[in-house]
Write a structure and sequence with these properties.
Layout lengths: L3 H4 L11 E6 L6 E4 L5 E5 L2 E6 L5 E6 L3 E7 L9 E5 L49 E11 L4 E10 L2 E21 L2 E19 L7 E21 L8 E2 L2 E12 L4 E12 L9 H4 L1 H7 L1 E11 L1
Parallel strand pairs: 1-7
Antiparallel strand pairs: 1-4, 2-5, 3-4, 5-6, 8-9, 8-16, 9-10, 10-11, 11-12, 12-13, 12-14, 14-15, 15-16
Amino acid sequence: MDMTAATSDIKDLRGLKPALIRFTVRDTLFSFSANNGILGVKREVGEILLFIPDGTKRITVRHPSLGTLRDYVLPLPIKAKRTYDAEIAIQKEGWHEDKPVEEPAKETVEQPVSNEEPQSWDASTFYSTESESSVKTKFLLGGGYQAMGVAGPTALLGLEIGCFHISADYTFGLEKVEGVAIYYGDTFGEAYDYSVSRFSARLGINTSPNSAFQFVPQIGASFNIINGDKIAKNSSKDKFSKSNPISLSVGASFRLRLAKSLYLYATPQYDISISPDDTYKVLKDADNKIKGWGEGFCISAGLLLRL
């Protein structure tokens, strides 16, 4: 949320805004160089503001009494208009307090690479907000196909806040079970053709949100919508016209980045039935496929946009 770099007048040779690293330091005698140059330096009490180009990968830090840290590899991708916080930590045995170094009479500041007039620095411009938050929000939009269990096309919507994953999907089942006959004792009562669809909601943790390959263990619940089309009847009531068993789902999603925001995903899971298939608990015994709609192994795969 820090807008210091974004509102700066400093630009690199390509006309891009700089990135800003704010170093917390004991003194301001440190000097810097980088693999693609320094655009500007501002020294304040207890910190140094270092403006560097987009994409900088390594910096060298020097101090007249502490020595040199050469070609330090920055642990994060450095992007234009963003602010990063850093601290130069000094080991106790390396700090010479018995012979303090005097502040140089004239400070050398590397000038911005720009045709504009040098910036007039004002400390108040650097403390408006905190540094950019590391928690990122991603919107998920996907589509694919689910095999086994409730088999059919699937649409997915979701949200990732940091590493936490929340998603919901709907599967339109293409399979049918035809001619399920129900008898009351020895007397025929009803017969149906059954079809199914499924709504699922899941919670998970993305263990590697910034990686090209991602692993997301998940747990959730599925609401199975089983509908029966009546084909014959010899009773006064439609006792088995529909069923809505609920399942507990445990699984994991595997993602492979194909492009900037496009992923190929595969999600195997196991469903555990936690409610009866119908009031009388007979439908799942009528056909094994109906039982599989509420309990068993299934897998879905497709494409996912992570925006």
